Structures
1.
Amino acid sequence: MGDQLDQFKEYVREMGKLHAATALLHWDQRTYIPKGGHEGRAEVLGKLSRMSFELLVSPQMAGFIEGLDRPEVKDGLGGQDRAMVRVLGKEHRRRKAIPPDLYEQFVITTSKAQTAWEEARAKSDFELFRPHLEKIVEFARQFAEAYGWKENPYDALLEDYEPGMTARELAEIIGELRQELVPFVQRLMEEGKQPAMDFLRGEFPTEKQEELTLRALRAIGYDFEAGRQDTTAHPFTITIGPGDVRVTTRFHSHDLLSALFSSIHEGGHALYDQGMASELRWTGLDDGASMGIHESQSRLWENLVGRSRPFWEFFYPSVQELFPQLEEVRLEEFYRAVNLVEPSLIRVEADEVTYNLHIMLRFELEVGLLNKRIEVKELPDLWNGAMEEYLGVVPPDDKSGVLQDVHWSAGYFGYFPSYMLGNLYAAQIFNTARKEIPDLEGKIAQGNLSPLREWQRERIHRFGRIYEPKDLLKKITGEGPNPGHFMDYITEKFEEIYQL
Ligand code: ZN
C-alpha cells in the first residue's frame, strides 16, 4: 500500500508540472502574445490539455484510485493524503463519465458558440446565439446525467464549482436573501442620500493609476518576490507554480476606481494561493477549496476591507498625493463615492449591494433550463422580467441583457452561484475575523493589514483543498453558509452611508 501511495503521489506531481507549463502559456496568451501567435498557441494548449486529460483517465490512474479510494484504505491515511485521494478520485471519475466523443463534440460546439455569441452580442441579436445555446444546454443536461444526481440535475454541475452545494440549498439562501435585499435597495434609492460623484469624473493618468495599484497590492501583502502584475483585457489571477502567483489588471484613464478595485480583488485571490502550505506543492491540493471560497477571499479584500472607512483612512493620502485634483475632496466624501449603490444592467459593474440580485436571476434560469421547465427561446423575456422585478431596471436590448456574460457560450452552467457565495462567505468570514483579531478596524486604519492576512493564512489559505468548502466554512466560522451575516453587514454599512 505504501508503494502504491508513493507512486500515486509521484504521478500527481508529474501531472502538476504539466499543469504549470499549461498555465504559463495561458498567462502569456492573455497578456503578451503577439496577435499572430494565437492560432499556434491554441494548438499547443489543445495538445497539453489532451495530455492532462489522458493522464487523469489513464489505466494507471484508474489503478491508483481503485486501490486507494476505498474506505478501509482511506481511513488509514493521513489527512493530506486522504484529501488527495478524494480530490483526484472525484476528478478522475467525472472526466471518465463523459465519453470522449461526446466531450469532443462539446468542445467543438462551445468553440463555435463563443464566436457566435460575440457576433450576437455585437449586433444585440439573441437569435444568432439561440441555436448554439440550445445545443449547449443539451450537453449540460447530458453531462448532468453522466455525472449522476439525486435531487436535481443542477447539483451534478454545481459540484465542479462548489462541491457539496445543492440547488435546493441555494434556493433557500436566495429566497431568504432576496426577501430582504430587494426592499433594502428600494429604500436606499428612494429615501437615501446619494453620494456625490462629480470629482470622480475627469482624467486619471494611467501611469499614476499603476503606481496606486502597486501600493495597494503592497499594502495588502501581495508578495512581489512570488508574483507580478501585468495588464490584460479581462483581469484574472493565475498560479503558474510554487512561488509564482500572478495578477493582472487594466487601466482606463477616465476611471480611477476600476483598476484599483480590480487589483485589490485579484490580489485577494493571489494571497490565497501565495498562502498555501509548502507541503501542498504538486499535490493537486494547491488550489482553493472551491470557487466560492476563492471568491470570498477576493471579495473580502475588495469590499470588506477595500471599501471600508478604516482602509481609506490610511490609503486616501496616497490617492491625493498621486491625483492632486482630489486635494479638496474630503475623505468622507470619497469614502461615500466608492460605495455608490446603483441598480444597473451589467453584472460585472454592479455594486456590492445589488450584485447578488444579478446572480439570483441567472441561477433561476439555469435551473429552469436544466430541468426543462424553460426553453432557450424564452430566455430574453424571462431575463428582462426578472431584472425589472429584482432590480427595477429593464435592459433596452439583448446586449445589455441576456447576452452580456460569456459563461453560457463556454458551457459553464453552475458557475454563477460561486460569485454570490463568495460575497456571502466573505461577510461571514470577516465577521469571525473581527471577533478574533483585537481592534481589527483600528489596525486597518493604521495600514497594518498583516494581522488580517496572517489570520486568513492560518485559518483558510494554508489548507488549500484539504477540506470541502462547507467543512472549511464551519471550521472557520462555526456554522454553515448563513446569508444573515451579509445582510447585517450591508444594512449597517449602507444605512450609515445613505444616512437612513
Ligand atoms: Zn474573482
Note: The CA atoms of residues 341 and 353 lie 7 Å apart.
2.
Amino acid sequence: MTKKITFHIQHGCQLNGQARVAGDKSMSHRSIMLGSLAQGVTHVTGFLEAEDALATLQAFRDMGVIIEQRGNGCVTIHGVGKHGLKAPTKPLYLGNSGTSMRLLSGLLAGQHFDCILTGDESLSKRPMKRVTEPLSQMGAVIETTPAGTAPLHITGQAGKLHGIDYIMPMASAQVKSCLLLAGMYAQGQTTITEPAPTRDHTERMLNGFGYHVSQQGNQASITAAGQLTAFDIDVPSDISSAAFFLVGASIAPHSDVLLKQVGINPTRTGVIDILRLMGAKIEILNQREVGGEPVADLHVTSSQLKGIEIPEDLVPLAIDEFPVLFIAAACATGETRLTGAEELRVKESDRIQVMADGLQTVGINVQATPDGMIIQGGTIGGGIIDSHGDHRIAMAFAIAGLCASAPITILDCANVNTSFPEFKAIATNLGLTLTSQEEA
Ligand code: S3P
C-alpha cells in the first residue's frame, strides 16, 4: 500500500534563489513513446523521473523495448521501429497518468496484438470516450466500462484502421495526440481540427524524429507513410512545475527567484500571460531553442497582484496551472473570474470543486461555477486541506502557505511524486518551510 503523506506549511515565508525544476512531463511521455517506435537509439536528457512518465516507460518495457535509466534524467531508448512492439504479457498499468492512457490507446489501436490498459482509482474514473469514440470511427476496437472509463480492452486492428477528419469537441492535446498516433497506423490521412490551440509537443517531436505532420491553422494531419529516425532529446524544465514558484515568488513579499531552462512553448505559456495581466513581475531571459522547443530563464519578483477576468483563449494554454492560479487570485486585490474551464472538472480531481472547498476552508470567499470560479481576493488563513490525491492541488496549497496568516496542513500528498518529486526539496531550498509526515 502506498504511504499517506501530509504536508505541514509554516506561514509567512519568502522565496529567494535559483532553481532548475524537473523535466517537462508531456515531453517526457512523448520521448519514450516516439523513441520506442524509432529506428535507432534515442538519448533523452532532462527526462522527468516521476511516477507518471515512469508509468509510460514501464509500459514500453512491457512491450519489449529496452530502455536504460542512467540516472539524473538520462534515459537511453533502443527503438524497435514502428512495427516492432511486442504483446505485453499482462495489463499495462498506467498509475495516475491520463496522458499515458489516452495517448497509448491511439498508439495501440492499430497494433498486431491485443492489450488492456489500467490505472489507479483517479485514472479509472476519468472519461475515456473522448478517445475511444473517434478511434472507433477509425476502425479501432476498444471496450471501456459502461461508464466509458478504464480498464480499456484494446483488440489490435493492424492494417485495418482508416484515417478520419475529426473535429474535436473540446480543446485537448491528449485527444489530438491520441488520434495522431493512431493515424500513423491508418490507411489514408487523419486530420484533426481543434477548437482552440493546445500543446503541440507531439507534432514537434514527430517532426524532430523525421515523421511528417502537417500543421495548418487549427488542423494537424498525418498519414502512415513515414518512419521515425532516432534523435537526441533534451527535455526542458516543466513550466507547469515552474508555475508554483512563479506564483509563490509573486505573492510572498521580498521574494526574488530565477527559474532556469524552462520550456516556453507558446502553447504552454498561458500562466505567464495570466500572471502578467494580474500585475506579476516576470522577466523572460536568455531565450533560446533546444531541440525544436523554445526555452528561457524566468525571473520573478514579488508584486501586489490584482484580480482580473481571465481571457478564455488563455484557458487551454494554462490548463494545468489553475490550481496555483486560484491561489494567486486569492492573494490578489479584488475579484478574479474564470470561465470556459469546464475541463478542470475532469482532471486528476474535480479541480474546480476541490480548490473551491480548500479556499473556503482557509477563509477565502469563492463561488464555484460549472465552468470556472469567482474568487474574491482576501487574507488566506490557516487550516487543514484535503488535496484528494491531486498533485497540483497539494502543491498549490503548499504555495498558499507563503502568504497565509497561520500554518496550513495538506492531506493526501503522495501523488506529488507523479509529476514533481523534487517539489519539497526545491521549495524548501528557496525558502518555504515545508515538513512532510509519512504514515503507512
Ligand atoms: C497533456 C494534456 C492536457 C494536460 C495534461 C497533459 C498532454 O490534458 O492537462 O496534464 O501531455 O497532452 P488534456 O488534453 O486532457 O487537456
Note: The pocket of shikimate-3-phosphate is lined by residues 26, 99, 172-174, 177, 199, 319-320, 343 (CB under 6 Å).
